[in-house]
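Input chain follows. Return structure tokens only.
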Amino acid sequence: MDANFWRQKWLEGDIGFHQSQVEPALVTYLPECKLPAKARIFLPLCGKTLDMGWLQQQGYQVVGAELSELAVEQFFQALGVVPDITEYPCHLHYRSTDIEIWVGDLFDINRAMLGQVDAVYDRAALVALPDQMRTRYAQHISAITAQAPQLLLSFVYEQQLYAGPPFSVSADEIKQLYAEHYRLHLLAQQTGGRLKNQTPATTQCWLLQPKVRTADH
């Protein structure tokens, strides 16, 4: 699974992971992050999620990272906004009022590019990555956000029943990935759902609170 895999998904319109409504867990559990007004929220692998527009409407600043330029173009078109676009060596930077998105490889984004982050909202990023990439991802997100608190959604199901993505990420793996730097709180667990309308799956919503944020935040 590489960058071309996801770009092809967008080109073919094979984007079953895109939701046609704002994620209910975000609306319900974002207050648990206890963010100040105008807080800056980072959405890795954001696609064209409606969650970004909702966060902007709540008064937050939004910064996203997305591999597919097509997804970002479609997001701003749906928003009815013409963004400013700046070209960098490895990325494009789309910006409008209180929303900016870096287009390119997430692992090439550093803390200086990202700027201050008050919280991370991970709806479908961790679960989009195969197991051999998830440790690198978790460490990278922690580093570039100065260990900002995270609201994280994950799926748990019998991996052999569905190849993924999204992949099954157990509570034990969440702890292995994040417990060194974060206090983990399972806010909600919804059973009885079905992944792609076929595989039984449980959805978990986690709050990751940093044990100690890095000094230069």
